[in-house]
C-alpha cells in the first residue's frame, strides 16, 4: 500500500535540512529513515565534534550546571558541552527532565566505541539549539547548514498530503484485517485532528482532512485543500523551535505528520488528547504489525525496527516535554 512519501527530491531537501546539525555518529533514525549529513563538516573544537571523531569516551565526570539565565548546561569535567556549530548546549529551565536525561546519556556512554543509537537526545537537542541560534543570528551561512524555519515548515506540511494515517488499504489486504484496524484506529484520530486544526482556521470554518482510499482512488496522490494547508501552517507558525524539531523528527520516523502532532498534543497540559508512545508506534507501522502477526518476524529486522521506532518517538516526546506549570 502507499505510505506517507514525498518525491525523492523533496525528501532529500527535508532530510538534508534535518541532518545538517547532526553528527555522523549521532544519526538516530531507523534503517528506513536514516539521515546522514553529506556536505556539512564542522571543524569547531566542541565536545560533540570530538566525540564524532574519536568515538570514544574522553571525560571522567558529568554534571549539570546552571547558567545566569536559569537554563541548564551539561558539563564534562566542568566544561559545558557545545553543539556541532559551537553554541553552548543550554537546556531551558522548563525542560529539567531533558537536562537530567541528557546528563545520564553522557554518563552511560561506554569507554569503548560509541554507537550512534546511544545519543538520540543529544542529537535532537543540538539540532534544536543550532536551528534556534541560526534564526536569532540570521546568519545565511549557518542557515544553509542547519536549515531555514519557513522551508522546513513547508516541506513538513507536504507530508500531510500522503500521511501514513490518511491512507486506507484495499479491503482485501491481510484478509480484511488491515482495513478493519485502520477504520477502527485512524477514523477517530482523524476526526479529533480535524477539530484541533479548526482552531487555527483563519475563517473559523471546519477543517476536513482528505484521505486516500485505495479501493476507490487507486494509486493517485492525495492532497489537502488550501483551507486545510493554511490552518495547519498557522499551527506550525505557533510552535517553538523545540516543538518544530520534535515534530520534524516524528514525521520522518513515522512518515506521518499526524504522528508528530500527536506527540506535541500529548505534551500540552491543556490538551486532553492522549495516545501513548506504544500505541502511536503501532499506528504508524500498522501494516507491518499485522503482517508479522500472520507470517512472523524476520530476526534482526522487524524486531529491531520495532524497538527503534519506539526509541525515536520516545526521544521526541522527551524533547517536547515541559515541566508542569506550578
Automatic annotation (TrEMBL):
Coiled coil: none annotated. It is found in: Mitochondrion. SUPFAM superfamilies: ATP12-like. Its main location: mitochondrion. One of its GO terms (cellular component) is mitochondrion. GO terms for biological process: mitochondrial proton-transporting ATP synthase complex assembly. Keywords: Chaperone, Mitochondrion, Transit peptide. The keyword Mitochondrion applies. This is ATP synthase complex assembly protein.
